[in-house]
Specification:
The complex is a heterodimer of chains A (174) and B (779). With 174 residues, chain A is of the alpha+beta class. Helices cover 36% and strands 14% of the residues of chain A. The C terminus of chain A is likely disordered. Classes of the chains: A alpha+beta (174), B alpha+beta (779). Bound molecules: FE2/S2 (inorganic) cluster (FES) (2 copies).
């Protein structure tokens, strides 16, 4: 059985014919679309290594069927930086030594970007830790991860202020 | 040098030399998703995928194995069984021939690989594997260490006994005596990147294997052994691992061997990446221990005689259990002097996966036995355990000899503990906690300060050697290769920093390349925290050889004395002339100076005689201490870590940012081991905790609420290590013993601190609750 979907990944449109309807979004990214930045830690929704944004919301891509992504806008770790310019969350992860082996890092960063967008953690380290707890870091870099998320969150809040009333904000929240 | 990179030849210091906190060399790649792990590499055309068929018995004879349906399944290209191994069907790292690649005739644990399917896709291979029909005849088994002792199981290797003085006389003489036992759980590594190998066949008998391994030379050796070809035909490469923690020291052998066998048989690339559940079921873990102790002490709490037996669940084969249980004994003294002592190991054969290296390598299990004894004495005498610790510290006339007859020469635990006690406000907080507990019926608090002393060097003395390969190119850029492997610990960064410092060139001039058995041969595992100690020294040795040739050349060419030739930041001073490094190197090239060198290092001073239990197995010790404070809900057994303060010794740090990260990460991982991470085998011998849903790894939210981590910045290694630094990977793993003991204190408050709760590890909420109930019943 073949099934066609059309989806935008990091701003680029892809038309994909799926020969197996059970292919996960994670496998589609890694194995079909040459985007191996998103990692597979457990393949069963328990580690967060595969976190990507779907229409701005963070999800475990190992639990999402590619077939259900028709029309979706997806952002992966490969789509955050603009050329050589790192996304503020990426820069904050380097600044705060928020990783060791780096295997959880793409998932942590995507989760952090999603979290900051959700605007639920504010400047509270407890909340950040709680809301980042879907992402295991076996190297235990949680100290740096929390600091990085807090700093990037603060920067995002500062940048958002002068732009209140920006029509884009409404779209993001939807 | 290309246009985009111009080192500053007027700089006062190099960028990225020794002792600076520079980010991990792959930092930008990690945050942009461009760091390549093996599963991210583009697969060569025609790559096939392997999947393992596992036993479903803890111990049984295989009476029949029908794989016809597996072979006939769609996409299947090959099915391997033990008989198909062209060389020797064994990957025992101990050389004991007790660990088959694929089990033949008999299975010895639930989940043991018995066959391997190779198919067009992983999915097809996985589906096909389910079609096997295997009949078993069950044999008796024991999965638990105590059950194995009762069943009279063999040891998987020769046990060790360490002795000093006369322990029986010491025990008989001592005014007080206590006996007890403790169970300490194992731990799954859960490296976030699971095991993986990709083998690419070459011409003749050659094969290249990319493996996620801490020990490429052993993979090379084992693949050669299984294929029946010499080591020179096998090339193993490792760029990086997504975590190792000891779990990739020997456990990658099986996957690499199978991928290589299949690749050679089919003459196509073969990749094997077990699913996480399989990875957790078929790879070895930290050894769980059962510790028996019999201790004599005086009325001040001074330990006079210590008799301890450390029995370990080793699994079905030896693997590294010998050195792991040895190291447990080497750390059963922690920071304490025992006058009369006998320590014995019992490496028990059990019908479980063969346990292996895990950060600390048995040391933590030994150390925790010592700390339990301290705690017991303290509660018996009604004292703060910290007082008992201090009175037993090594130091003073005749109190510096370890049970293995090495003299502790570099003891700084007194200063570490004193500073931490002060900076964490330990005494006042402890008083406040005791007061709090008096008026708090449900929530009880506890606080504990525990020390660590950890011996650095492989106890297998010959392992303490390393090689490096350094090339300087005509444009002044450098190529660095060494025998160590990068698993996140920042080894490559630190070695490159040491090289940058030695040559006085910016870090950016150095390209660190994948570990490759063809570049540096006969390497040791990147383990025992020794990666930087060994490999940075080898890299510096290579640099010095090249520098010596450069100095000879310049002195002759410019007719200046050698002392006037100085390597300054990105430039070289020759008498009163100055050249940029690149210019100088190009001159040397034109004068036909060899600009490449193989460096070598072997750790001095160490020796160890296992038969007599005497020697100096460790070059030096690393020290540290932590204070943890917890709150325990005595109705549910749940707890949280409110605060942890750490002071840790890394000598003169090569990179304080990386070292601090290691200390923090080790603490979190050690806390997991002692609190939430519980391995559970059912009565059939099946591991039930084979995924993070049932096996609870610490999350961001489990981190101590307040977490103050400091490096002892005054410490310098008294031995001539690389720029006087100390190893950091393992020692801080034992700092969270303070968490276990703080929980214990909170529980002890129920019995007015008169009874030691004797909490086993991991102190899961269930165990804490049971201890609470025990104390309530006793009160
Ligand atoms: S790989 Fe998706 S959550 Fe672990
Ligand atoms: S950096 Fe290794 S798992 Fe997070």
């Amino acid at each position: 059985m073949s099934l066609s979907i059309s989806l935008a990944i990091n701003g680029r449109q892809h038309d994909v014919a799926l020969n197996d309807p059970r292919v996960t979004l994670l496998d589609l990214l890694r194995e079909r679309l040459d985007l191996p930045g998103t990692k597979k830690g457990c393949d069963r929704g328990q580690c967060g290594a595969c976190t990507v944004l779907v229409d701005g919301r963070r999800i475990n891509s190992c639990l999402a069927l590619a077939a259900s992504m028709d029309g979706a806008e997806i952002t992966t770790i490969e789509g955050l930086a603009e050329g050589d310019e790192l996304h503020p969350v990426q820069a904050a992860f380097i600044e705060h030594d928020a990783f060791q082996c780096g295997y959880c890092t793409p998932g942590q960063i995507m989760s952090a970007v999603g979290l900051i967008k959700e605007g639920m953690a504010g400047d509270d380290p407890e909340r950040v830790r709680e809301l980042m707890s879907g992402n295991i870091c076996r190297c235990g870099a949680y100290q740096g991860i929390t600091e990085a998320v807090l700093e990037a969150g603060r920067k995002a809040a500062e940048n958002a202020q002068p732009q209140t009333g920006n029509p884009d904000t409404g779209k993001d929240a939807a | 040098m290309n246009k985009s990179f111009k080192p500053d030849v007027n700089a006062e210091t190099v960028d990225g030399g020794a002792h600076v906190a520079r980010p991990h060399d792959s930092a930008i790649k990690h945050v942009t998703g461009k760091a390549i792990y093996i599963d991210d590499m583009a697969e060569p055309a025609g790559t096939l995928h392997a999947y393992l068929g596992l036993s479903t018995r803890a111990h049984a004879r295989i009476t029949s194995m029908d794989l016809a349906r597996v072979r006939a399944a769609p996409g299947v290209k090959l099915v391997l069984t033990g008989g198909d191994v062209p060389g020797i069907n064994d990957i025992s790292p101990a050389g004991l021939n007790d660990e088959p690649v694929l089990a033949e005739g008999e299975v010895k644990f639930y989940g043991q690989p018995v066959f391997c399917v190779v198919a067009e896709t992983r999915h097809l291979a996985r589906k096909a594997a389910q079609l096997a029909q295997i009949e078993y005849e069950d044999l008796p088994y024991a999965t638990d260490v105590v059950a194995a002792i009762e069943a009279g199981h063999d040891h998987v290797c020769t046990p060790l006994t360490l002795k000093r003085g006369d322990v029986d006389a010491g025990l008989a003489r001592a005014p007080n005596r206590l006996k007890g036992e403790m169970r300490v759980g194992g731990q799954d590594h859960f490296y976030l990147e699971g095991h993986i190998s990709m083998a690419i066949p070459g011409e003749d008998d050659e094969v290249t294997v990319w493996a996620s391994t801490q020990h490429p030379s052993e993979i090379q050796h084992m693949v050669g052994h299984a294929l029946g070809v010499p080591s020179h035909s096998v090339n193993v490469q490792v760029r990086r691992m997504g975590g190792g923690f000891g779990g990739k020291e020997t456990q990658g052998n099986q996957f690499a061997a199978l991928a290589a066998i299949a690749a050679k048989k089919l003459n196509v690339p073969v990749k094997i990446r077990p699913d996480r559940d399989d990875d957790m079921s078929i790879t070895g873990k930290r050894h769980d221990f059962h510790i028996d102790y019999d201790v004599g002490y005086d009325d001040d709490g001074r330990i006079l005689a210590f008799d301890g037996t450390f029995a370990a669940r080793c699994g079905f084969s030896a693997d590294l259990s010998g050195p792991v249980t040895d190291r447990a004994l080497f750390h059963a003294d922690n920071c304490y002097y025992y006058e009369d002592v006998r320590l014995a190991s019992r490496p028990m054969m059990t019908n479980t996966v063969s346990n292996t290296a895990f950060r600390g390598f048995g040391g933590p299990q030994g150390l925790i036995g010592a700390e339990r004894v301290i705690e017991e004495i303290a509660y018996k005498l009604g004292r703060d355990p910290l007082d008992i610790r201090k009175i037993n510290f090594y130091g003073g006339e005749g109190r510096n000899l370890t049970p293995y007859h090495q003299t502790v020469e570099d003891n700084i635990i007194g200063r570490i503990v004193e500073e931490l006690e002060e900076s964490s406000d330990y005494q006042a907080r402890r008083k406040a906690i005791v007061a709090f507990n008096e008026n708090s019926p449900v929530i009880r608090k506890g606080i504990a300060l525990t020390p660590v002393k950890f011996g650095i060097s492989f106890t297998a003395t010959w392992y303490n050697q390393a090689g490096a390969l350094v090339h300087v190119y005509r444009d002044g850029s450098l190529h660095l290769n060494h025998g160590g492997t990068e698993m996140g610990q920042g080894l490559n960064t630190k070695v490159a920093q040491a090289l940058a410092e030695e040559f006085q060139v910016d870090f950016a001039m150095i390209k660190i390349t994948a570990t490759n058995t063809g570049k540096v041969p006969n390497t040791s595992a990147t383990a025992a925290s020794s990666g930087t100690d060994l490999n940075a020294m080898a890299a510096v040795n290579a640099a010095r050889q090249i520098k010596e040739r450069l100095v000879d050349f310049a002195s002759e060419k410019y007719s200046v004395p050698k002392e006037t030739i100085v390597f300054e930041p990105n430039r070289v001073r020759v008498g009163n002339q100055v050249f940029s490094f690149a210019e100088f190197i190009d001159q040397a090239y034109m004068a036909r100076v060899q600009l490449s060198a193989a460096g070598f290092y072997k750790t001095p001073k160490i020796h160890w005689d296992r038969a007599t239990g005497k020697g100096r197995p460790f070059y030096y010790y690393a020290y540290g201490a932590a204070v943890s404070e917890v709150s325990v809900d005595t109705l549910t057994g749940e707890y949280q870590v409110d605060r942890a303060d750490i002071l840790h010794d890394v000598g003169k740090s090569l990179n304080p940012a990386i070292d601090k990260g290691q200390v923090e990460g080790a603490f979190i991982q050690g806390m997991g081991w002692l609190t939430t991470e519980e391995l559970w085998w059912d009565d059939k011998g099946m591991l039930r905790t084979h995924a993070p849903s049932t096996y609870k790894i610490p999350l961001a939210s489990d981190r101590p609420r307040i977490f103050n981590v400091k490096l002892a910045d005054w410490s310098e290694n008294r031995e001539m290590t690389i720029r006087r630094s100390k190893a950091v990977g393992e020692p801080p793993f034992m700092l969270p013993v303070s968490v276990l003991e703080a929980i214990s204190m909170a529980v002890a408050s129920i019995g007015d601190y008169r009874t030691c709760p004797c909490l086993d590890a991991p102190a899961t909420p269930e165990r804490v609750l049971m201890a609470v109930e025990r104390l309530k019943a006793g009160a």
